[in-house]
């Protein structure tokens, strides 16, 4: 079915962080390898038009309605699938958000099967069960189980903590210091990566489908503690950036737990409990150009703009 010429890849969420990265990585591959389509709700938006200028072929559709995008799947070799739990999560409705995400992903997977799509590259997360039930992680496992049960061809790309989250953490200026409230204790390793580069792993997966079908590729850049991240931010920005000194005891307190949405607290608790292997060497061997934290800082103008 898929002979000579570019292979069509349909990217869901092409205007988002993950989908946009996938589109850019595929378009940067050997010319003539991929024909990149992007599913968008509004093709006239600035983000959609920016992707069109890069060479993405836009098609209008909404993950809530498989019929709205199913025609665009015809003739596709692969899709990148990433429904957004956080679109539905309001801080107190994890079950509802999980149900939305699962329904959207399964609806898209079924549409792919009906249209003969060869491969589904699915953005997933680690499961922490039975120790922790974290809906935005376990939703992905529900979908993976479904893909396996249905015999669909899939490859998982497993995201880790986004380096860019540091731009969102609460911060305040105290004297000559910028104090950043990291959500983990000062000495706790946090395995992260540049979400802007997730497309490199997706491209690797699509170029190695025989090896990775039915398997998960971990996307990892580097493990750093909050204290070390603050030091690296200081070195690059020239500002004195410090943490607020969160200890393990304070993190484990009921007071601190109540200060965060339960979904996020459980996620960080699972990481603190050793739920993620801090070794990033196997992941980086697949994508050697993957940034470590300092490299991400150097390539991200928003860092200096944020810590002023």
TrEMBL record:
CDD domains: NmrA_like_SDR_a (cd05251). Residues 7-260 form the NmrA-like domain. Gene3D superfamilies: NAD(P)-binding Rossmann-like Domain, UDP-galactose 4-epimerase, domain 1. The keyword Cell inner membrane does not apply. Pfam families: NmrA. SUPFAM superfamilies: NAD(P)-binding Rossmann-fold domains. GO terms for molecular function: oxidoreductase activity. Keywords: NADP, Oxidoreductase. Belongs to the NmrA-type oxidoreductase family. This is NmrA-like domain-containing protein.
């Amino acid at each position: 079915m898929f002979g000579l010429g570019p292979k069509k890849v349909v990217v869901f969420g092409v205007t988002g962080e993950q989908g946009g990265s996938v589109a850019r990585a595929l378009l940067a591959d050997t010319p003539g390898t991929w024909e990149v389509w992007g599913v968008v709700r509004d093709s006239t938006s600035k983000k959609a038009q920016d992707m069109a200028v890069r060479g993405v072929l836009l098609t209008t559709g909404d993950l809530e309605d498989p019929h709205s995008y199913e025609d665009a799947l015809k003739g596709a070799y692969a899709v990148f699938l990433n429904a957004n739990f956080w679109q539905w999560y309001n801080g107190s409705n994890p079950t509802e958000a999980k149900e939305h995400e699962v329904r959207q992903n399964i609806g898209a997977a079924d549409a792919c099967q009906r249209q003969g799509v060869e491969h589904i590259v699915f953005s997933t997360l680690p499961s922490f069960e039975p120790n922790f039930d974290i809906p935005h992680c376990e939703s992905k496992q529900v979908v993976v189980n479904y893909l396996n049960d249905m015999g669909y061809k899939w490859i998982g790309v497993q995201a880790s903590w986004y380096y860019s989250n540091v731009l969102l953490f609460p911060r305040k200026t105290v004297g000559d210091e910028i104090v950043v409230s990291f959500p983990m204790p000062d000495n706790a390793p946090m395995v992260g990566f540049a979400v802007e580069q997730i497309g490199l792993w997706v491209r690797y997966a699509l170029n190695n489908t025989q090896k990775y079908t039915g398997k998960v590729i971990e996307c990892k850049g580097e493990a750093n503690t909050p204290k070390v991240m603050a030091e690296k931010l200081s070195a690059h920005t020239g500002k004195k950036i410090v943490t607020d000194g969160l200890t393990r005891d304070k993190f484990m307190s009921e007071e601190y737990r109540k200060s965060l949405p339960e979904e996020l607290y459980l996620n960080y608790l699972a990481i603190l409990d050793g739920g993620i292997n801090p070794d990033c060497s196997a992941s980086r061997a697949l994508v050697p150009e993957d940034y470590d934290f300092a490299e991400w800082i150097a390539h991200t103008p928003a860092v200096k703009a944020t810590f002023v």
